[in-house]
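Q: Give me the 3D complex with zinc ion.
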Amino acid sequence: MHWADVLADELAREEKKHVLATGITPSGPIHIGNMREVLTTDAVYRSLIERGVKADFIYIADDYDHLRKVYPYLSKSYERYVGMPISDIPCPCGKHKSYADHYLGAFLNSLKEIGIIPKVYRASEMYKTGMYSDAIQTALENTDKIKEIIEKISKRKLSKDWIPFNIRCERCGRITSAKPVLYEYPNIEYTCECGYEGAVDIRVGGVGKLPWRVDWPARWKMLGVTFEPFGKDLGTVGGARHTGEKIVQDIYGYPPPKYAVYEFIMLKGAGAMHSSKGTSLSSEEMLKMTPPEVLRFFILKNQPNKHIVFDPGMGILSLVDEYDQNERIYFGKEKESRGMKDLRRTYELSQPYNIPKKMPYQLPYRHLVTLIQIGKNWDDVKQILLRTGQIPKNLEEENELYLKQRAEHARYWLNNFAPDMVKFEIKKNTPYLNLTEEQKIFLSYLKNIIPDLKWNADEIHNAIYEISENKNLQIKTAFKTIYEILLGQDNGPRAGYFLSNLDKKFVLNRITEAIK
Ligand SMILES: [Zn+2]
Ligand SMILES: [Zn+2]
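A: Here is the predicted complex, encoded as C-alpha cells.
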C-alpha cells in the first residue's frame, strides 16, 4: 500500500473531521523541504477525501515570527528590523505588502500549478484579531508548568523572569527585547532594551506572541489539527515536537496530532537545504524548472523518511523520463518490471488535478529540450512538430497545453540551471570557420545526398555514418563539422534528430556556404 494511504487509514479510524496542517516561517526563499511537507500532506489529504472522510488542508504562515538576522540575501539596511515580526517589515522589492508576503505570495501562487490550494492562515492576522487570546491567557496562567516541561524535556535552562509570551515593544516594534516586570491579568508591565517602559493588555490583539514551543501546540488546539508532518530537525528528542506534545496535553487538554517525519531533500552537489543559509534553490524555482506532475512524482514515489536527492542538472531529464515510463506502464503500453511497487497509486497521486482517462501525448523530454532551442516560442516548436510529423495534425487541445507547459518548464531549466553541454544556439549566418580538407569533403558528400534523403532522424543519422565510413573519416569529425557550421561550437544535440527538425533547404544552403 502507498504510504499516503497507510497514513490516511490511520487517521480515518477516528471518525471525525480531520485538519491536516502544514506551515512555514516565510523569512526567506521557501526551501524545498517545505515543498516536501506540503506534498506529503496533500497526498494524505487526497486519500482521505477519496474515501469520503471530511478533511481540511491548511497552511499556516508564521509571519508573526521575528527576523532572526540579516540573511545573506538581504541588504545591510535590514539590521534595524532584526527582532521585529516579519509581517511588520517592508518587503525587499517594494511590491509586496510586507517582508513575509514577499516570500510567501509567490510560493502560494505557484502551488496552484501542482494542484494544491490549502486554506491559508497568517499568524500575524491570527494574533492581531485576537484568535490567540485564550491560548495566551492559558499559557500565562500555567507559566510554571510550561517552564518545567520545556526545561525538563529540552534540557534547557530558562531565565528567572521567563514567561511564555514575547511582548512586542510598543516603541521599537521588536518582540525579542522586552522583559516582563509584572504580570497581573490582563496586563503585563515590561521594560525594553530600547529604554521604553510600558504595559500591554493581553486581551488586545497583536501585543506579543507565544514563543515557538508554545505557539505550535496552542495552534494545534485552536485549529483542531489532527495531522501535521514535520522535518526531522523538529522531531529530535527534546525538540519542539516533543515539548509540544506534552504542552498540548497537559496545558491545553488536546491530543497531539498524528504526524509523519520527513527527511530533508538534498540538492545534488550542495547538501541539505536550509533557508537560513540563503539557499541556492527555492521551492519556487524547483517548481518552475520541473513539470508539475514530475515534481509530485519525485516526492510521492518515496517514503517521507527517505533521503532524496534533487538534481537540478541533467538529473531532471532522467526524472522526467522515469515519470513518462511510469505513465506508459500505468496505461499498459509498457510492461511493469520488478521493484515498481505502488506504481499505479503513485501515478494517480502525482496528477496535479484529474487523473487522465487516456495517456497524455508523450514526446521525449530531451527532444523538447532540443526543440525549444531551435524554435523561439511555442508556435515555432509546434510548427516543427507538425512539419516533422512528431505530433498529429489533430492533436487534442489538452495534449497541446500539456506539451506547451512542459516546454515552459524545460525553458526555465535551460535558462537557469542546465549545464552548458545541452545548450546551443543556431547561428543566423554561417560562422567564420577554418574547415579542413577532410571536413569539406564530408560536407560536399552530405550535400549531394541530402536532396534525395528522407528528412527524418534515422535516415540522416545513417547517411552521416555511411559517408564517414566510405570516406574513411572519423565519425567524431563528421558530427563536429555539422555542429560547427550550424552552431559555431563543436558539440550539440544528437545530429540526426537535430537536423531533421531544421528546414532541409536551410541546411543545404548552410553547407553550400560553408564549403565555398
Ligand atoms: Zn517584494
Ligand atoms: Zn523596545
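A quick observation: The first strand starts at residue 18 and ends at 24.
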